[in-house]
Amino acid sequence: LLFLNQLQKDLEEVKELLTKATRKRLRDVLMTEKHKLELEIKNQPPPRPKDVAEEEKSSLGGYTVKINNYGWDQSDKFIKIYISLNGVQKLPAEHVQVNFTERSFDLLVKNLNGKNYTMTFNNLLKPISVEGSSRKIKTDTVLVMCKKKHEEKWECLTQVEKESKEKEKAAYDTSDPSEGLMNLLKKMYAEGDDEMKRTINKAWVESREKQSKGDIPMDI
């Protein structure tokens, strides 16, 4: 707005100089400058009404905080995510927005105590019904209700969580219990210093001696 005012003042001064200029060369220079200023003013974005600007500033709050803490539960028909936000029930309903897709949702809470709050869940474990999903505002809590497309139990919320659990389980669930230990020893030996290698070699020799004497039945 300040820049636009400066341009308009420059244009007024150029117009005033034109009324006084008599030399053709000077008039040509001033006319060129006049056209440039008029074009620049024309291309400036129109100023927004003050009330609109103030309302927008008020609705957006100060800065955005990503929500990481939540609780969740499920019934036969719904996945329920509980997000604690002090005083959220005092906000206008339109300041608490949730957008759903078949495998995701994102929450935006605007201008709660001068801050915005967001939470996004992508790659939900199973598909949800966009039309049947909703949000409820309770005292100090937002409840996001994801309607299950199929009435079945979810073991976790997202596909990423499921894959992580499966990898963790596979690391411990082996048909040969000694295989994991052998892999660990090999890794320690390969990455260890001379002292570590001597320690592992000593343990290996001692275990072989005990096995040959029948003290331990399992070969490590």
From TrEMBL:
Q: What are the GO cellular component annotations?
A: cytoplasm; nucleus
Keywords, sorted A to Z: Acetylation, Cytoplasm, Nucleus, Phosphoprotein, Ubl conjugation pathway
In terms of InterPro entries, this protein maps to:
CacyBP_N (IPR037201), Calcyclin-binding_UBL-bridge (IPR052289), CS_CacyBP (IPR037893), CS_dom (IPR007052), HSP20-like_chaperone (IPR008978), SGS_dom (IPR007699), Siah-Interact_N (IPR015120)
Q: Where in the cell is it found?
A: Cytoplasm; Nucleus
Q: Which residues form the SGS domain?
A: 143-220
Q: Which residues form the CS domain?
A: 65-158
Question: Is Cell inner membrane found in the keyword set?
Answer: no
Q: Which domain of life is it from?
A: Eukaryota
One GO biological process term is:
heart development
- Name any one GO molecular function: S100 protein binding
Q: Which SUPFAM superfamilies match?
A: Calcyclin-binding protein-like, HSP20-like chaperones
Any idea what job this protein has? Answer: May be involved in calcium-dependent ubiquitination and subsequent proteasomal degradation of target proteins. Probably serves as a molecular bridge in ubiquitin E3 complexes. Participates in the ubiquitin-mediated degradation of beta-catenin (CTNNB1).
This one is known as Calcyclin-binding protein
